[in-house]
Amino acid sequence: MKAMVLKEIQPVEKRPLEMMDLPIPRVNSGQILVKISACGVCHTELDEIEGRLQARIPVVLGHEIVGRVESLGPGATKFKLGDRVGVAWINSACGECHFCRAGSENLCPQFQGTGCHADGGYAEYTVVSEDFAYLIPERFTDSQAAPLLCAGAIGLRDLRLSGIKRGQTLGLFGFGASAHIVLQVAKYWGCQTFVFTRSGEHRNLALSLGAAWTGGPQDSPPQKLSCAIDFTPVGETVPNALRVLEKGGRLVMAVIRKRNPIPPLDYTQLLWDEKEIKSVANVTRKDAEDFLTLAAEIPIIPEVQEFKLEDANTALILLKQGRIQGAGVLRISE
Ligand SMILES: [Zn+2]
Ligand SMILES: [Zn+2]
Hints:
- It is a single chain.
- The chain contains nine helices and 18 strands.
- The chain is an alpha/beta fold.
- One zinc ion binds near residues 42, 44, 63, 89 and 150.
C-alpha cells in the first residue's frame, strides 16, 4: 500500500514525509482492516514532525481517518464488511486502570495515539481494534467526516471543559479546523462567540458562521467573556485571553504544545478573581461518538480543503502557515 511515512524529526518545510510502499497491515483478533478514503491533517502532526510530541519513528501519521471495513479479524463482530467507519486520536487504552474505569481513558498511562504510537491514516489502509472505531452518520461525505473525528471531538471536549452554559459568552483564540466547529456547537447551545485571529479570511469565515464579534489577538471585545479557548501555538495568547475573561472565567488550552513559552502572568491582573486555566489531554471514545451524533443533528458540515496523499507535505506546510480554509483533508481513495 501507499503510505506517507515520517522517518526523521525535521522542520515541516523540509517536506519530511516520504512516500513508501508498505505491506497492508494484518488484522489481529478483535481488529478491523480499514480501506482509507480520507484522512484529516492536524496541528498534532506538526508537533510530531518537528519533535515537540514524541511519536514512534518511523510512523504513518494521521488520526482523522474515514474509510470502509475491508476485513474482520477473528472475533470482530461490531461491524460488517463495507461499513463506513472513523478512527480518531484514541487508538487504545488499557481499560483497567482507575482512569479508564472512571471514563477518563484519555488520561490512561497506556494511552496510544493513532498516527503517533500506532500507524495512522496517511496511507491506503490501517488496522484498529473494533472498539476504537465508530460508524459515520450518513449525512457527511468522507472528507467532511474526517475533521469531525479530531477537530470536532476535541472541540466538544474543549467546550465541555470550559464549563460554558447556555446564554454565556465564549472567546475563541485562533480560528482553524477545531474553532470553526466549536463556534457552531456554541451557537447551537445559545452562546455568543467572539473570535480573535490575525487572519482576515478567518475572521470572515467566523462572521459567516455566526460569530458575534471578530478582532485581532490583542483587541478588546465589547464585553468581558465567560470563558475562552486557546487554539493558538503562541504563548502570548494566554495573557491576552485571561485579560478579556470575566471574574471566575475559565481559559481552556486546546493545544498540546506551544511554539514559544507563556510569558510570566501577573497574578493580580490576570489570575485573581477566581480565573482558571485548564488544559485538555487527548480524547475519549465518548467524545468522538457524541460529537458525530451532535454534528449530524445540528448539522455541522465542515469546510474542507482536499489534497492528494502525495501532497501531504504541502498540506502540512500550509497548515503551519495558517493558510488552510477550514480543515485540510487528504483524499486517499473514492
Ligand atoms: Zn488532531
Ligand atoms: Zn487505562
